[in-house]
């Protein structure tokens, strides 16, 4: 006796209108994320500086004001000091001989 073999065939996958909208939405989101990543890395590469940041070694007797006025002579003194503090992560105004301070790039 040969047993009847019954083959169960799955119908092809059919998406409803809502399912197609969800798939399309996911594709749009993925394309947006991919383009955002590509454009952000390209813009970062264009903005990267050509070389190391300029710096200065603090000499005995130097103050932030002295260094700011020498490195940024056209800027307001207090604004220049504030810029040096921001660039170097300084919470106060004191510097010690031998400290290396990052200077702002010339615009």
UniProtKB/TrEMBL annotation:
CDD domains: LysM. Residues 54-103 form the LysM domain. InterPro entries: LysM, LysM_dom_sf. Signal peptide: none annotated. The chain crosses the membrane at residues 21-39. It holds the Pfam family LysM. Keywords: Membrane, Transmembrane, Transmembrane helix. SMART domains: LysM (SM00257). This is LysM repeat protein. It comes from Paractinoplanes abujensis.
């Amino acid at each position: 006796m040969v047993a009847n073999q019954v083959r169960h065939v799955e119908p092809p996958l059919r998406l409803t209108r809502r399912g197609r909208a969800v798939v399309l939405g996911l594709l749009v989101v993925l394309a947006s994320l991919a383009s955002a990543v590509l454009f952000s890395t390209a813009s970062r590469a264009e903005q990267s500086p050509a070389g190391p940041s300029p710096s200065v070694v603090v000499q005995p007797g130097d103050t932030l004001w002295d260094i700011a006025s020498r490195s940024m002579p056209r800027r307001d003194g207090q604004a220049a000091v504030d810029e040096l503090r921001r660039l170097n992560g300084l919470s106060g105004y004191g510097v010690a001989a031998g400290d290396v301070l990052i200077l702002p790039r010339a615009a």
